User: What shape does this take?
Amino acid sequence: MAFNPADLLRVRSAAAKFNSNHPKLLPFFNAARGKAMTPGSVIEIAITDPNGEKIETNLRVQESDIELINLLMEIGAKGQ
Assistant: This one.
């Protein structure tokens, strides 16, 4: 599969919009990644739709997850 630089620009633009819409999320992950987000930690995610129905899941953090989060945070910091 060939790399398309235009896709990277689209991702960067979408990420900037997401960060603008949800300004507390990036600082939350920054705070969590150095303290609470260690291998074996559990991340819980819940979504409540407009009707009040909720779905939720969780995942146990692995070292490779932390590496990906750190990489994404580094890329995000360069785009600001």
Notes: The first helix runs from residue 5 to 21. The longest strand covers residues 42-48. The two ends are 29 Å apart (CA to CA).
